[in-house]
Amino acid sequence: MLFSDKHAGMGELADTLADDAYTEGRSLWRDARRRFMQHRAAVASLVVLALLLIFAAFGQHLSPWDNESIDWASLPNLDEDGVPSLASQHYFGLDPIGRDLYQRTVQGSRISLMVGVLGALTAVIIGTLYGAISGYVGGRIDAIMMRTLEVLSAFPFMFLVIVLMAVFGRNVLLIFIAIGAVSWLNMARIVRGQTLSLKRKEYIEAAMAVGVHPFLIVMRHIVPNVLGVVIVYATLLVPEMILFESFISFLGLGVSEPYTSWGALISEGADAMWTAPWTLIFPMLMLVLTLFCFNFLGDGLRDALDPKDR
Amino acid sequence: MFSFIIRRLLVAVPTVLALITVSFVLMHAAPGGPFTNERNVPEAVMENIEAKYNLDKPLWQQYFIYVGNVAQGDLGPSFRYKDFTVNELIESSFPRSAYIGAWSFLFVMVFGVGLGVLAALKQNRWPDYTVMTAAMTGVVFPNFVMAPLLVLLFAVTLRWLPAGGWEGGQVEYLVMPIIAMATSYIAQVARITRSSMIETLRSPFIRTARAKGIPRHKIVLRHALKPALIPVVSYLGPAFVGIITGSVIIDQVFSTGGIGQHFVNGAINRDYSLILGITILVGILTIMFNAVVDILYTWLDPRVRY
Amino acid sequence: MTLINQQRKIVQRRGPSGSGIRHSVQGVLVLLVTLALAACSEEGEKKAGDEALAAADIRAPEARFQEHPESGERLARKQVLVRGNASEPASLDPQLVEDTVGGAIVVDLFEGLTRSGPDGDTEPALAKSWVSSDNNLTWTFHLREDGRWSDGTGVTAHDFVYGWRRAVDPKVGSNYAYYIESAGVANAGEIIAGDKPSETLGVRAPDDFTLEVSLDQPITYLPDMTVHYTMFPAPRQAIEAHGADWTRPGNMVSNGAYLLHTWHLGEKLVTARNPYYREDDQTIIDRVVYVPIESASAELQRYASGELHMTSTVPVSQMARLKKERPDELVMAPSIATYMYTFNVNRPPFDDVRVRRALTYAIDRNIIVSYITRGEQMPAFSLTPPYVSGFDFRQPEYATWSQPERDEAARQELRKAGYTKDNPLEFELLYNTDESHKALAIVISQMWKEKLGANVTISNLEWKTFLSQKQAGNFGMARHGWKGDYNEASTFLTLLTSDSGNNDGGWSNPEYDQLLLDARSSKDPNPYYVRAEEILWQEFPVAPVYFNTTVALVSPMLKGYPENNPRNIIYSKDMYITAD
């Protein structure tokens, strides 16, 4: 328990020792799980996210259409035949060239959920480690790592995508490389900022004095203590990366028609919202729902993993 | 402090040089050149155009010519906007974006931090829920949805505001660009501030302060706010550069004439000199504001040392 | 420099509000905000004044006319025309302009020998008359004597000579240098290649008002070609005085109905009536504002909020609604442009003419033009649009078939070529990222999938990647659009000659090449053109989809918009704004 308590001064230590949880001697993980399960919004979000995954994986079976066929019969009069309707079985309506938006949203969910989660994960893993090491080690290493970060974040990212595209051709995996390349930059800066402040805390200095290996200090003392901010920022990255993907697709990398993503659907919907608001509303709703879920999930995880909060 | 700034300034030079080099190489690796056109012109014509812009020389020569010119403050002629130099393009567009950005940033700070603190203080009560719901909705409204929505509402339907233009930066032309720019940043900052504030309020030294009977608002302002702002400042450093260098969407939807449009158009047009010029600008700004952030850390937490 | 100074001043105009925040906010905020503001405002602070107002302002003087001199319609009190113009021009230098947006401005600023009339026919402008002699190898243009530059000096034949020489001068590096060469002007090719000085170009001014052009190759349509801005005159006095900066407001001298007033990149460009223009007393519009709006939906919103008189385009996704809601404002002018797909004939499966034929047949063009583009485009079965002036337009036989008949023929062709259910046709279709190209590619590929069982992969590429792949022949099938440079069929048909730089599909046919060569000097080229088209109907180097229209929204108050000009050349001076 001790290691993750941020401010374990001597006076606080006594408090902690007197704490129920400690005296009962439960394991950290069981403890965390119990706290997580108490967070009702987080549990509900987990359920909704699971439903979303099921929707993305099996949703296409609920509708007779598919994601690329054009409903030729409705094409002449999309204003009326294209609106969402249970009768026509176009639950989410038709897009401006007569394709079923429900199926497209289902198919887009797969790409977007993957992009969002993987983008956030890259940020969490690379960004956290990079920032923690840079901030903890400090000095010249910190300077080099931070200047590298500056070069990376000022650099014209579009060319990276264009060159990736030209060299490797279109490949869904490359989206993740492109997204991974940018998603962690801000995370690293945030974590470094936290680390700089944590590093001067008594318990870290104590660990240093005792001669604990720097890597262990980073992993055991720094990382757990920055997780709160990391989780919150990661949940914010999920929608950002989902939307960012549509920009990468615009450059030719990423998903190509007839495949789509929420980002692509939203940017198409933004153009058509005047005439066909449903083209914007449904993918937007999916994105909002996802964000809310990740947000509550993040809160739940943070509370569960933060031992101060009991 | 003084030596810190000097050190940063010295390091900035190789950093920018590294940035130029990486960008230069990658840019030239991209297919097509600035003069690749839908209408394929005869070779002799293309050679003349390339000679005019030194593109006929070997790449390493182009690189040294460019770096030499940059050292003298000359960013070269734009390859796309043939009547202008890159210096002129930046001088005319950056102030506009910076102006919109400065105002947006102000709102981001005030509302983002303010709402975040409010939500943290009223955690799990209705103000918290309201603020967080609004914030999360704001996060998913990217400016390419926000900007046309605003125009539809305020310009087309209500006719309260002009749909676009700059006209010397009059207020009515700025309202929508600023809202479109600031919304999602406000939402993100509010979210980060809230969680950071909650965490700080739970820390032992705040508990101690509370136990001592110090009034709540004093605890928040004197003790909790500063440490709670560290992640916010980390986030806002790079965000500030993003905000003042504008956005392509805002420039395109509102015809503000800002620098944001050049990021995307410059790359699409392979306007090498414009892209490099902007990259250098962004690089310098990034370096500058990261240094500011590092200084702010020491103010927010005096124990921080480099 | 003018532009920059003006902008600094403009930025300055917000002075009071800018200083307001400095006082009201404390600490870090002040530091950060002022840092950014200081960067942009210090400079202009001292010299802010009237100029700033004038620069920011498009407020024109009260209009000179209350009523239209001919029709007697009541006119608006301010004759300020605001035009949507898709993007920022590459240049305003007539010899360097290379895009339609630049062309739209330059034809207001400058005037050439000829102009494009309301129906797209070539009309005299600065040239009163012209004759050809020597079997079309020499052309003599007689100029009007009342042409004036905006500094008051006269426009002479020497200005044309100067302009044309600039166009081919390697040092100027004009993209359109080839245009002079393709007109066959003597020595153009050698000058471009750097083998001869630009003074040797086959154009001279025997006196101030006579322009004599000598050609290497005869050509019958030279006057049509002079409508193009590359062949406009250039103001030697301004170019020599200001060098590369001559296209700035204040520096530029122009001879058209308007002169350059203000230019704020990315925001607007303003032109004002040129008092020295020969027909200035008949020009009604006082100011023209060109707003570069890259997004078609943003442009539509600008129009809908009443800030534009006309748009440059209309988003495809809005056509259906606009046809219902604003039928009177929607203008769909025929355009000499063809939308097509190019086959790479050197690459399987497109090396087989039966495959090319089958795919061309199976496109249901009626669905495309009625429900996708919706802009009254005309289904195309041949290359040259019917709107090209003087062109004997004919169509291949399959154009008269019904679509099911075409589909059946397509299936047969494909079967003959050896493609079956077990061995389906597979290929990739390239297009550049754009809403309407995307819609078309999706719909057409879907037709091929459903009718022919073809496995089509459609891939969007960012513009320059698309171009470089296409021009390198690194594609199977690619979207292609072609807009005529001048109003004569050869501008289309020469696209597919073996030596054409734009024949990306690599198709080549000696008979076709010879026909077009012979047509150049023929009194009546139509038989050659018809025969050339017939070859295309057999060979299918491209799959034509539709003949384009220029779709725009035009305010009911704006009169004189050239609805029938297939070149979409819009002269602001021909228009006027009515009171209501």
Layout of helices and strands, plus pairs?
The complex is a heterotrimer of chains A (310), B (306) and C (580).
Chain A: H1 10-18, H2 20-24, H3 28-38, H4 40-58, H5 78-81, H6 101-137, H7 139-154, H8 157-168, H9 172-198, H10 202-210, H11 214-250, H12 262-272, H13 278-305
Helix pairs in contact in A: 3-13, 4-6, 4-13, 6-7, 6-9, 6-11, 6-12, 6-13, 7-9, 9-11, 11-12, 11-13, 12-13
Chain B: H1 2-29, H2 43-52, H3 59-71, H4 86-121, H5 126-140, H6 143-157, H7 171-202, H8 204-211, H9 216-228, H10 230-244, H11 248-254, H12 260-268, H13 272-300
Helix pairs in contact in B: 1-13, 4-5, 4-7, 4-10, 4-13, 5-7, 6-7, 6-11, 7-9, 7-10, 10-13, 11-12, 12-13
Chain C: H1 2-12, H2 15-24, H3 27-45, H4 50-56, E1 80-85, H5 100-109, E2 114-116, E3 122-124, E4 127-133, E5 138-143, H6 157-168, H7 177-182, H8 188-192, E6 203-207, E7 210-214, H9 222-225, H10 236-242, E8 258-264, E9 268-273, E10 287-292, H11 296-304, H12 319-325, E11 330-343, H13 353-361, H14 365-373, E12 378-379, H15 403-416, E13 426-432, H16 435-452, E14 455-461, H17 463-471, E15 477-483, H18 490-493, H19 510-521, H20 526-539, E16 542-553, E17 558-559, E18 576-577
Parallel strand pairs in C: 1-10, 13-14, 13-15
Antiparallel strand pairs in C: 2-3, 4-5, 5-7, 6-7, 8-9, 9-10, 11-15, 11-16, 12-16, 17-18
Helix pairs in contact in C: 1-3, 1-4, 2-3, 13-15, 19-20
General description of the model:
Chain A is mostly helical. Helices cover 73% and strands 0% of the residues of chain A. In chain B, helix 1 (2-29) packs antiparallel against helix 13 and helix 12 (260-268) crosses helix 13. The longest helix of chain B has 36 residues, at 86-121. The radius of gyration of chain B is 23 Å and the shape is globular. Chain B starts with a helix and ends in a 6-residue tail after the last helix. By secondary structure, chain C is of the alpha+beta class. Helices cover 34% and strands 18% of the residues of chain C. Chain C contains 20 helices and 18 strands. In chain C, helix 13 (353-361) runs antiparallel to helix 15. The longest helix of chain C has 19 residues, at 27-45. Classes of the chains: A mainly alpha (310), B mainly alpha (306), C alpha+beta (580). Chains in contact: A-B, A-C, B-C. The interface between B and C is large, with 72 and 77 residues.
C-alpha end-to-end distance of chain A: 12 Å
Oligomeric description of these chains = heterotrimer
| Class based on secondary structure composition and strand pairing of chain A | mainly alpha
Profile the largest sheet of chain A: none
Task: Report low-confidence residues of chain C grouped into runs of 5 or more.
Answer: 1-57
Which of globular, elongated, flat, extended, rod-shaped describes the shape of chain A?
globular
Largest sheet of chain C: 6 strands, mixed
Lateral strand order in the biggest sheet of chain C: 12-16-11-15-13-14
Query: Mean pLDDT of chain A, nearest integer?
Result: 81
**Pattern of helices and strands of chain A:** HHHHHHHHHHHHH
The percentage helix of chain A is over 70%
Structural class by SSE content of chain C: alpha+beta
Share of helical residues of chain C: 25-40%
Shape of chain C: globular
Q: State the helix count of chain A.
A: 13
Report the portion of residues of chain C in β strands.
15-25%
